[in-house]
Specification:
Blueprint (H helix, E strand, L loop, with lengths): L1 E2 L10 H12 L10 H20 L7 E4 L2 H16 L5 E5 L4 H12 L3 E5 L9 H7 L4 E5 L16 H8 L4 E5 L11 H4 L3 E5 L10 E5 L25 H12 L4 H20 L5 E2 L9 E5 L6 H12 L1 E2 L13 H5 L4 H5 L1 E5 L6 H17 L5
Parallel strand pairs: 1-11, 3-4, 3-5, 5-6, 6-7
Antiparallel strand pairs: 2-8, 7-8, 9-10, 10-12
Helix pairs in contact: 1-8, 2-8, 3-4, 9-13
Length: 378
């Protein structure tokens, strides 16, 4: 199998799986218990929290474990709005956020909040000027992702704090860093974020665990109640095997500079090979994340059919968009105002640190054969 769908999930490292197994079979105590087994488990919980905090240049008490990016995004958004609802009714986000943000925003609209969704240009970019114009003194939350999960656009999150301050806004700033973490520097203080989301399964860790950074001094309201775990922000017995696996995955993140140099080179090679195919168009911006390439493939197959064809015929795994969208029409490409034909026949290729030139060559060969055998308009 050639796996090029790393924005959906990554293959867990063996050391991560070994750590999870150890926690399930040996260190299985409840970290809230005071006996030896509980204390040993709690030590692992502390170590994982310290590891994630250090990776973000944050303090341990600013890290709260969740079941993944979706829960962390929901906790940040609803928690921030509930905490600030008496200060205003305006929320600023973009039209290309992950579904866990988009659907949370739609729910908040039914509750009477004004949601401003900034539209991208045709390369998937949001400008600093758009953000500055949208944020006013009644804005209580700004939620903007760092790197888009479908086309790889890098959004101008670093300018948000200054815009909030200039507008005299009480807004908390939330940044979904799920596609950035482990691939580029993610430091909430440098980004100006009060709330920041990361998850394990995008960095070769397990599914089912993520974390929310909450800046010390920032207040959000919990979404659930029932225990003192995670400082009552996210109560309930911690999924310690997954959390320990998360910590292990973070410790295995290599030096980002050489990793990114290699992936950038691989991305440039891939784009050159793909553009050489008759009719292929790259939808991602030239300065998008090198880990993601969104492209239009001129075949009569729709994107979902093409994904299935490449998997069944060539053993190649790519995506028709966000895995969380479950095959729905891409809201990102729609927001970019690309034509229907482009939207219906575009796919996403996404790399990890394990991706190779041989993977790209196999993909290009498979697409060339597919385009020739099943051309558009057949």
């Amino acid at each position: 199998m050639i796996y090029l769908d790393n924005s959906a999930t990554t293959a867990p490292e063996k050391a991560v799986a070994d750590k999870i197994y150890e926690m399930l079979t040996e260190n299985f105590g409840n970290p809230s218990s005071f006996h030896r087994a509980g204390l040993d488990a709690n030590a692992e919980l502390r170590r994982a929290r310290e590891t994630v905090a250090k990776s973000l240049s944050a303090e341990d008490e600013e890290i709260f474990f969740t079941s993944g990016g979706t829960e962390a995004n929901n906790l940040a958004i609803f928690g921030a709005v509930q905490a600030n609802r008496r200060k205003g009714r305006r929320i600023v986000t973009t039209a290309i956020e992950h579904e866990s943000v988009l659907e949370a925003m739609s729910e908040l609209e039914t509750q009477g909040f004004e949601v401003v969704r900034l539209a991208p240009d045709k390369s998937g970019k949001i400008s600093e000027e758009q953000l500055r114009e949208a944020i006013n003194k009644d804005t209580i939350l700004v939620s903007v992702m760092y790197i888009n999960n479908e086309v790889g656009s890098v959004l101008p999150v670093k300018c948000i704090k200054k815009a909030v301050e200039k507008a005299g806004s009480p807004a908390l700033i939330h940044t979904d860093c799920v596609q950035a973490y482990g691939k580029t520097e993610v430091k909430p203080k440098k980004l100006g974020a009060d709330l920041l989301t990361v998850t394990a399964h995008k960095i070769h860790g397990p599914k089912g665990v993520g974390a929310l950074y909450i800046r010390k001094g920032a207040r959000i309201v919990p979404r659930q109640y029932g225990g003192a775990q995670e400082s009552k922000i996210r109560p309930g017995t911690e999924a310690l095997p997954l959390i320990a696996g998360f910590g292990k995955a973070v410790r295995l993140i290599p030096d980002l500079k050489p990793q990114n140099e290699r992936i950038t080179s691989l991305c440039e090679y891939a784009k050159a090979q793909l553009k050489a195919l008759d009719g292929v168009v790259i939808n991602s911006a030239d300065d998008a994340s090198p880990y993601i390439i969104n492209l239009y493939v001129p075949t009569f197959m729709t994107s979902q059919t093409l994904v299935q064809h490449l998997s069944s015929t060539y053993g190649i795994c790519i995506s028709s968009g966000s895995a969380c969208a479950k095959g729905k029409r891409s809201h990102v490409l729609t927001a970019m105002r690309l034509g229907d034909a482009i939207i219906e026949h575009s796919v996403r290729v996404s790399f990890s640190r394990n991706s190779t030139k041989e993977d790209v060559d196999a993909l290009v060969k498979a697409l060339k054969e597919t385009i020739e055998k099943y051309p558009q308009g057949r």
